[in-house]
Amino acid sequence: MTVDVTTVEVIKGALIYAAEEMGIALKKSAYSPNIKERMDHSCALFNHRRELIAQAEHIPVHLGSMALAVRVGLETYGGELEPGDMLLLNDPYISGTHLPDLTVIAPVFNDGEIVAYAANKAHHTDVGGKTPGSLAADSTELYQEGLIIPPVKLVRRGVIDRDIQALIMSNVRTPEIQMGDVRAQIAANNTGARRVAELVEQHGVDTLHEAMDQTMDHSERRMREEISAMPDGVYSALDYMEDILPGGCDVEIAVTVTKRRDGITFDYSGTSGQVERPVNAPLGVTVAGIYFTLISVTDPSIPVNDGCFRPITLRIPRGCMMNPNRPAPVAGGNVETSQRNVDVLMKAFSQILPEKVPAAGLGTMNNITIGGTLPDGQPWTFYETIGGGSGGRPTGDGVDGVHVNMTNTMNTPIEALEAYLPFRYRAYRLRTDSGGPGKHRGGCGIERTWALMSDKAVLSVMAERNKIPPWGLQGGKPGGLGVYTLRRASGEEEVLPSKCTVEMRRGDSLIIMTPGGGGFGDPLTRPVERVVADVASGLVSPTSAETDYGVVVDSETYEVKEVKRP
Which of 282, 391, 411 is nearest to 343 (CA)? Predict the structure, then answer.
């Protein structure tokens, strides 16, 4: 059967927007600020062969692993699915990310046959485990990180299974919020299923399937064209996760990218073995980073589906940190190791496509999880990630105060948090001098400070780049390091490790200083007027202007007093 190109384009666009509409339904139906405000969720549609066909522009680490979650989740379940059924799972060794990410999969039926699948993944603010927020920095095995859910039939013919619901609610600290978010995920899949059913009614099943196949073939052709234009060769890169082994030792992520004709191979031989720390990255996370990087350095207008990734060959040894064996802990692999994976891949691609690759961004999601008990005895939990600076680009500066790479979440408004949580915010601003100096300056990090207003709480920090700064490119300097400081109500201060779990008391404050991005190009070639503008806006200090950029700026009038350049 041949479907004309216009119909293919109409169906492709309808499927992509259906995935976007799923996300709108999820966001508007959710209970937690993490989903309602930060939009920490992702939605996608799959064909009847369980191949990714359309996705919304949501969270890269979710989307890149969703294909694995759908394929392996359905294979692992193995049972019969009926109209109105939905599967739920969060097992990282099946779903591909970490336990707080709950995946919900819905088959879409027509005349008794499955014609597609709607699926979504959302980060829940608590799924049990040893610490509130389920991101313990000191877990040594998966079982400490929360409730593990294999693929189970959560919804049967449109009705939530009360036994499974009771099991979930009995194992999380904020059951009403978590089940509210699960119901939002169900609503999202219902939205996607309705839109697919409408396409079937309008065009027929055969036309829908043929349009899906042509869309994937088109994406494959375009990706192969992009890869073909790259120079053949073997390119290697190395970067580190900090303070993982005893004694503060770092561990390596090594990748070799081999490009031949219209195919490309990613080999992680030489990467450190899995560790007894929660920074192991499940296979889905590693694959997500590869997909994200390849799309970023080629043509982002290529429709993202399974066709894009047919030219890829993977060599990721079992038992290494990027493909661990069960039950290695993985809570931070999804949020931190995923970021470093992209840094390593981008460093390799900077040798292949130097005109397209920026310097390193902040390289961390700066995860904060905290929870405790309110005066009425009700438990509360909170999770957020905090942005920083993106790297300087070949054609422009990095962006200040933004999330980069594997996360795409929004800012959590202070007003919303203070309304629901025992917090008082003291500061929220950009960090002076945190962006790496360069011809194109790295983006600046963020300072975010809040005080605890309840009696006590357990805080977990999961971050990176507190020791090894984001690298610059082509003469650009590194971005600023991150710093976490716990200021006790007494005034005593303690600089926290990048991964830790501590107790806070009423009046204690957490001062979060996130990393900036690396600079791109020689700082001494940055236009003088741009240095002056940075000083005037508070992004660069007069001291840095002189020492890094060779421009002496009057701190009161912002006039150039002297230019000290060769």
Answer: 391
